[in-house]
TrEMBL record, chains A, B:
Descriptive protein name: NADH:ubiquinone reductase (non-electrogenic)
Keyword flag DNA repair: no
Signal peptide: none
Lineage, broadest ranks: Eukaryota, Viridiplantae, Streptophyta, Embryophyta, Tracheophyta
Enzyme nomenclature, EC number: 1.6.5.9
Membrane topology (UniProt): Peripheral membrane protein
Annotated compartments: Mitochondrion inner membrane; Peroxisome
Length: 494, 494
């Protein structure tokens, strides 16, 4: 049980090391000694956070830092629980505004919210932590998750494996962009789900604008470089196309006057664009996008080469920038988990968002779906679903702790209250040129408000501005919108 | 002379291709045809901008987009000249504020100024261009430069070689960080000269802060990961150390409370810090930095390993982040140019910043230095020297054009006016904690104002705020300072 003692030790480490105070101008370097020896390396995989004792605060481990996980952490009562978050990114992305960052309407940092700002206990409470790591395995029998640090190729630290014991585990790992097994998508297309995707799109777009101005390049090549193709006509694809056409009409005309007639946007969709909106709004969007110069093409992508797409009818579409936004599905890791599954391969949950057949595991957001046995449909992969589930589960867990069921395996007898019910609040999408769609009906058949145009755009902007998590970012989003309006988008390729 | 005709053709290409207007919902894709054939590939290296004719506007080609090149472009009379800039980056970096971006006091975009904002003609005038490319050779006999596109590993376009004819050539290629041939510096240390360096530092610092919180990591390793070492005690090294200690004292204490006692900054300098400032200011800086927790170590670096530095006295300094700011020297490309050289290997210029023995070539900024024959010393590699030279040369070239000497080989008989004289306006450096040094004397021996403390800090901030090139960035710098003061620095690792 030597390793278990190390566990306990580690979880109880106090800041026993006095910080070295500089006492004179040239500090001797003698307090540095050589690095850890081989004996220490051997125990690396064993160390971690040990199970909490009966008198300790129970620990909620949250996997993921998206809408669901962050809303949950925000709502958790940190007097009742220690919160440990494991995620490969230390911030939440305000995804509805991500498309705006690709062309510089907004800055990247204005849509990224550090987790420590969402739940301050994470960065300061003694038993709460954020770990920059990915989860590599879940062990429900031992109430334990296996993790490995994420270092993005930096040589700071060798990959470090550790285990964390949980009292409650919340899986909020989100989903991955679907490629439908089409060859070449992963290698050549850029998704639009993370800040680094938006950064890559912005860098590539600016690169192609500059490369197309190189002397001697053929007309054909110029047109290819400046052909921006978006595959997928959902809200992300449409919003990105709208932003791109705004960028072309306002900024490219001014700042890249030499090549302004060569740049074009094509949106490829197999079915209808914005299929979740009603016919009238869809027609409006189609008209507006076409007016802004976006070419709408109905087609099915068969193959993606490095400089061209092959459609199923055999036609070839050369491109310089390819953005892929055809929808999402569960990640291979989520698929691999030995847990019950909902239709579509998500983690199956009951009406209280619990994963049945195991104790103390919950799943929320895009990675989870109601089990067939609940008789409820799998909810769409939307921010508002994830956020509502995070909020619901935080309240549920707070109630469980209050009733004395915070510890592992101790909540069986506790009443969980009302099950989770999702009420759709409506959908919004901007389509560029100060125009947006707002559909406030619960479903396509229901009655209610649905409108399109400038008023919708004002509603869209106001709604998202108030939804941005922190005051800091709300301020920055407003400042970015203001400077974009006054002096155009920033085109430094940094 | 077939290739020469292509030259002419290319330089006169008009926008003869009508932009395809979308006429119906589903646009046919038939107007895309296959890519350029092999015949075209064969002529690739030949195409470019041909020599201007006697009736054309003369062309100034500027190599580089730093302080010198950008100030020159800003000042050039675009009615008299077409301006062509060749540089691997499409923006100028406001270097005095770069250190502040590493810890998030300022945002990266607030210190980057797109060239098109500095000289709008570049992005819109018919004969003016910006090419994202590096210069690979200068051919003074034919008044021609050889260039190759820069694509950063993107597969957008194969490397593309082209030649540009110039009437006047201004070499403003700047300098490179010196490693003094010390092994391991390039592989393990990060310089602080470009925005991407600052981005790398910020990402690594935040990564290390998070990795050091991983459970089970040894005390030793934790201390190493959070040991930030700065080599070089010039203004850049000192300002970065000051910013870092501000970040530690304000933000790390709050946002990384678990590891706050482990993070330390060490500044290694072989001689004295801030050697260009006077004794009193230097002592003040030393006291303030020490008070802020920066360890000042006098030492000479002998070898840099991936996790530790070896000093010449044999002592080892483990580090998690290593920033190298020991000064600059000419780049290998500048050294390789077959042009006269000044002491230190820079491009040699006369008092009018002309490169003698060749026609119509000028050199300004850190890549240039007075020839020994002028009897003047090589000026220090400072932004203010570069900027003053850019301004001077713009006026000189404008005068030459007015006198009818704008074309290649036509300015021999034209009087150039007063030679360039450099008058040092003083030096400034911030040292953190609302303190700075301001030395307004022309040299260490001269009389004049020199002060340190809060007033200097106000002067420092005001001076730089007014010097930031565009109103947009001036506004953003002020907004960044404000939010940093109110809500701390952003710690999202994006």
């Amino acid at each position: 049980m030597a390793w278990f003692r190390s566990f306990i030790q580690v979880s109880k480490i106090k800041s026993s090391v006095r910080p070295t105070k500089p006492t004179h101008f040239f500090t001797p370097l003698s307090h540095f000694s050589s690095a850890a020896g081989p004996a220490e390396a051997a125990v690396r995989e064993r160390w971690g956070l040990a199970p909490t004792g009966p008198d300790d605060k129970p620990r909620v481990v949250v996997l993921g830092s998206g809408w669901a996980g962050c809303r949950l952490m925000k709502g958790l009562d940190t007097k009742a629980y220690d919160v440990v978050c494991v995620s490969p990114r230390n911030h939440m992305v305000f995804t509805p505004l991500l498309a705006s960052t690709c062309v510089g309407t907004l800055e990247f940092r204005s849509v990224a919210e550090p987790i420590g700002r969402i739940q301050p206990a994470i960065s300061s409470a003694p038993g709460s932590y954020f770990f920059l790591a990915k989860c590599t395995g879940v062990d429900p029998d031992n109430h334990m998750v296996h993790c490995e640090t994420v270092t993005d190729g930096s040589n700071s630290l060798e990959p470090w494996k550790f285990k964390i014991a949980y009292d409650k585990l919340v899986v909020a790992l989100g989903a991955e962009a679907s490629t439908f097994g089409i060859h070449g998508v992963t290698d050549n297309a850029i998704f639009l789900r993370e800040v680094h995707h938006a950064q890559e799109i912005r860098r590539k777009l600016l690169l192609n604008l500059m490369l197309s101005d190189v002397p001697g390049i053929s007309e054909e090549e110029k047109r290819r470089l400046l052909h921006c193709v978006v595959v997928g006509g959902g809200p992300t694809g449409v919003e990105f196309s709208g932003e791109l056409s705004d960028f072309i009409m306002k900024d490219v005309r001014q700042r890249y006057a030499h090549v302004k007639d060569y740049i074009h946007v094509t949106l490829i969709e197999a079915n209808e664009i914005l299929s979740s909106f009603d016919d009238r709004l869809r027609q409006y969007a189609t008209k507006q996008l076409t007016k802004s110069g976006v070419r709408l093409v109905r087609g099915v992508v068969k193959d993606v080469k490095s400089h061209k797409i092959i459609l199923s009818d055999g036609s070839e579409v050369p491109y310089g920038l390819l953005v892929w936004s055809t929808g999402v599905g569960p990640s291979p890791f989520v698929r691999s988990l030995q847990l019950p599954k909902s239709p579509g391969g998500r983690i199956g949950v009951d009406e209280w968002l619990r994963v049945p057949s195991v104790q103390d595991i919950f799943a929320i957001g895009d990675c989870s779906g109601f089990l067939e046995s609940t008789g409820k449909p799998v909810l769409p992969a939307l921010a508002q679903v994830a956020e509502r589930q995070g909020k619901y589960l935080a309240e549920l867990l707070n109630g469980v702790a209050k009733a004395g069921g915070g510890q592992a395996n101790s909540s069986k007898e506790i009443a969980l209250g009302d099950p989770f019910v999702y009420r759709h609040l409506g959908s919004m999408a901007t389509i560029g040129r100060f125009k947006a769609l707002v559909d406030l009906r619960q479903s396509k058949e229901a009655k209610g408000l649905s409108l399109a145009g400038f008023t919708s755009w004002i509603i869209w902007r106001s709604a998202y501005l108030t939804r941005v998590v922190s005051w800091r970012n709300r301020f920055y989003v407003a400042v970015n919108w203001f400077t974009t309006f006054v002096s155009g988008r920033d085109i430094s390729r940094i």
